[in-house]
Amino acid sequence: EVQLVESGGGLVQPGRSLRLSCEVSGFTFDDYGMHWVRQVPGKGLEWVAGISSTSTSIIYADSVKGRFTISRDNAQNSLYLQMNSLRLEDTALYYCARDLEMSVTDAFDIWGQGTVVTVSS
Amino acid sequence: SYELTQALSVSAALGQTARIPCGGDNVGSRDVHWYQQKPGQAPVLVIYRDNMRPSGIPERFSGSSSGDAATLTISRVQVGDEADYYCQVWHSNSVLFGGGTKLTVL
């Protein structure tokens, strides 16, 4: 069964850091690009970052550029999101999602259930 | 900056056809993808590359795109189709989602 399981969310103060993880199973991880997408409860989807299968292409939304770093470990079947200098507006449910292709330019065909990040003092 | 515009809500009678629009400058020249999200659940891809259906998605779901508009069409709407629907495109080294449309089945 294809599965994406996020972890690492929690309550953190503004300005602090948090690292999210996404463990995948049921498919060949290094055949696919991966993404992080977030959603404030009751609001729409916001794409955060994407990484190609071999990490050669990495892209970020302007809202997180310079603060967040996406990475992957193909040997560990894991995707990561290092979030630094967190802001109140980063509070959201964070999903990891699989790209249809090895790149980061296609649709997202598999999604995890998400991990909640709350930034609050 | 590029934006995708979606109506806040669309309604359709049970068994009829629902059409959910997504507007954007020359969006017809891009691959448009559509997601369905039910309350408390992760999004599900229902249409990719304008009009392709992933396995497991009913044939009642279809997509089209031309000019400045893309449309997700749901035929023979069912109560279980009530959800938020998001369009998405790739633009200028970035991924963009529309604001989402809530489909209500009457």
Give the secondary structure arrangement, pairings included.
The complex is a heterodimer of chains A (121) and B (106).
Chain A: E1 3-7, E2 10-12, E3 18-25, E4 34-39, E5 45-51, E6 58-60, E7 68-73, E8 78-83, E9 92-99, E10 108-111, E11 115-119
Parallel strand pairs in A: 2-11
Antiparallel strand pairs in A: 1-3, 3-8, 4-5, 4-9, 5-6, 7-8, 9-10, 9-11
Chain B: E1 5-6, E2 9-12, E3 18-23, E4 33-37, E5 44-47, E6 61-66, E7 69-74, E8 83-90, E9 95-97, E10 101-105
Parallel strand pairs in B: 2-10
Antiparallel strand pairs in B: 1-3, 3-7, 4-5, 4-8, 6-7, 8-9, 8-10
Write a concise keyword list for the protein shown above.
heterodimer, A: 121 residues, mainly beta, seven-stranded mixed sheet, four-stranded antiparallel sheet, 0% helix, B: 106 residues, six-stranded mixed sheet, 10 strands, globular
Describe this entry's structure for a reader:
The complex is a heterodimer of chains A (121) and B (106). Chain A is mainly β and 121 residues long. In chain A, the strands form two sheets. In chain A, strands 2, 4, 5, 6, 9, 10 and 11 form a seven-stranded mixed beta sheet that branches. In chain A, strands 1-3-8-7 form a four-stranded antiparallel beta sheet, with no helix packed on it. The mean pLDDT of chain A is 97. In chain A, strand 7 (68-73) and strand 8 (78-83) form a beta hairpin. Helices cover 0% and strands 50% of the residues of chain A. Chain B is mainly β and 106 residues long. In chain B, 0% of the residues lie in helices and 46% in strands. Chain B has strands at residues 5-6, 9-12, 18-23, 33-37, 44-47, 61-66, 69-74, 83-90, 95-97, 101-105. In chain B, strands 2, 4, 5, 8, 9 and 10 form a six-stranded mixed beta sheet that branches. A four-stranded antiparallel beta sheet of chain B has the order 1-3-7-6, with no helix packed on it. In chain B, a hairpin with a 2-residue loop joins strand 6 and strand 7 (69-74). The mean pLDDT of chain B is 97. The chains are: A mainly beta (121), B mainly beta (106). Chain A binds chain B through residues 35, 37, 44-47, 50, 59, 61-62, 95, 97, 100, 104-109, 111-114, and chain B through 31, 33, 35, 37, 42-45, 48-49, 54, 84, 86, 88, 90, 93-100.
